[in-house]
Amino acid sequence: MTETTHQQPAGAPRTGDGYRSPEYRLAQNALQGLRQGLFHDPFAYRPMGPRPTTGPLLRRLPTRIRTAAERLPHAVVGAIALLTLLIGAVSGSEPGGDARALLTGLLCALPVVATLTRPVGAFWLSIAVSPVTALLNGGGSDWPWMPGAFVSHLTVLVVVALRTRPRTAVWMWVVTAAYAILSDIFIGGSYYYTNGGPMLVTSAFALLVVCLWHVRHTAQQEVTAQQTVTAQERSRRTLLEERTTIARELHDVVAHHMSVVAIQAEAAPYRVENPPEELERAFATIRENAVAALTELRRILGVVRAEDYEAPDAPQPTLADLDALLVNVRDAGLTVEKVVTGAVRELPPGVELSAYRIVQEALSNSLRHAPGASARVEIGYVLGGLGVRVVNGPMPGPSLVKPSPGAGHGITGMRERVAMLNGEMTAGPTEDGGYEVAVFLPVTMVNEDDA
């Protein structure tokens, strides 16, 4: 006799003898959704918020009208509540003629008003009010919803579905269907007409439209969130790329000077006849530290280098190369003039390189965004730093060359360069329709006595 053992796969749902079937889990999840949607704190205070006024149509309206539009949903609910009050009061056995008619109208309007503060509680209140209004008007021909209660319950279903999730809307329709069927079976025998079917069909279409709106709104929110994340990632990537470029350029500048220090420290003892031993040790220490610093600098900055990056053979540009840059820009069609103020002096390589790149990028933006305009480059050598100002005029009226849009990466790169040198920068449109970039790069003054 052979015994066969079947092992349950890991993670399988447990049933009564140890594992549960998928059908059981589906029913359990459905009941859990019903409990969370309709039974978990149903009368909690959840006031209806103002309507967003960020749409393309509402943004064009005056401020006063736009402020009033924020309360438009509250006004619509209040108007429907008055309508249900009127319908409930005039649709009874004695329409508008006694206290029962007025009470019927108030009972029909109460659940609609409750949707403004307690949406789920308003649904249960509407279910409870429906048989009461029918019993108050015993001579009526509608069951289980009197005309006022019919409009009231349908309004409550739509408003609550708009304020909650699609799952709650489905469960409200199921409870409404159960109430209609049970009331027809146990109570509605004396009524020759039942409006349970029209209620279920009408509410099903209304709730389907609301659920589709929820799905579309959720999809729009996801797309907006994804676009925001994409824009942030693009900006972050641009910033990292610009930092990488700056790190490469600074590496070239600093590595050059550190190499010069190491070579001069090694050659200095040979230029002195019979140098003291202390002097030789000092120069040896300087060279060792310079070589160690150069090695560490290359190791750290190698992290941000691209694998296919090669160090340029030519030296990095400085302010002395601005004239050649302006010639190239003029050949491209931009009328530009250069003005230098102050005593021209040699600045640190990092400052001159950043100033050159800022002027280069500002002129490139002028060519791109204002073709045919004129520009002015101002270089100011002032006490404590360097001032750079690049301003272009507006684009001339009729022009065959159209401006090309940009992603704003140039301004981001300029700000990054200025920030790394602890400088200040402003960029924005001018009053005449042009654009201005103004930068101040600080330069630490070194006295000859401290050198």
Structural write-up:
The chain is of the alpha+beta class. The protein contains 12 helices and 5 strands. The protein has helices at residues 22-39, 63-69, 72-90, 99-114, 119-136, 147-163, 166-186, 196-267, 277-301, 322-331, 349-369, 409-420; strands at 335-341, 374-382, 385-392, 424-429, 435-442. It has a 5-stranded mixed sheet with strand order 1-2-3-5-4, covered by helices on one side. Strand 4 and strand 5 (435-442) form a beta hairpin. Helix 4 packs antiparallel against helix 5, helix 5 runs antiparallel to helix 6 (147-163) and helix 6 runs antiparallel to helix 7 (166-186). The longest helix is centred in the middle third of the chain and has 72 residues, at 196-267. Mean pLDDT is 79; it is low at 1-7 and 447-451.
Task: Give me some keywords for this one.
451 residues, 5 strands, alpha+beta, single chain, 5-stranded mixed β-sheet, disordered C terminus
Layout of helices and strands:
Layout lengths: L21 H18 L23 H7 L2 H19 L8 H16 L4 H18 L10 H17 L2 H21 L9 H72 L9 H25 L20 H10 L3 E7 L7 H21 L4 E9 L2 E8 L16 H12 L3 E6 L5 E8 L9
Helix pairs in contact: 1-7, 3-4, 3-6, 4-5, 4-6, 5-6, 6-7, 6-8, 7-8, 8-9, 8-12, 11-12
Total DSSP E strands: 5
Mean pLDDT: 79
**Poorly predicted tracts of residues:** 1-7, 447-451
Q: Please report the distance between the alpha carbons of the first and last residues.
A: 101 Å
**Strand residue content:** 5-15%
The arrangement of helices and strands along the chain is HHHHHHHHHHEHEEHEE
Please summarize the sheet with the most strands: 5 strands, mixed
Q: Which class of secondary structure composition applies to the elements?
A: alpha+beta
Rg from Cα: 39 Å
Strand order of the largest sheet: 1-2-3-5-4
Regarding quaternary structure, what we see is: single chain
Share of residues in helices: 55-70%
* Annotation field: number of helices: 12
Question: What is the overall shape?
Answer: elongated
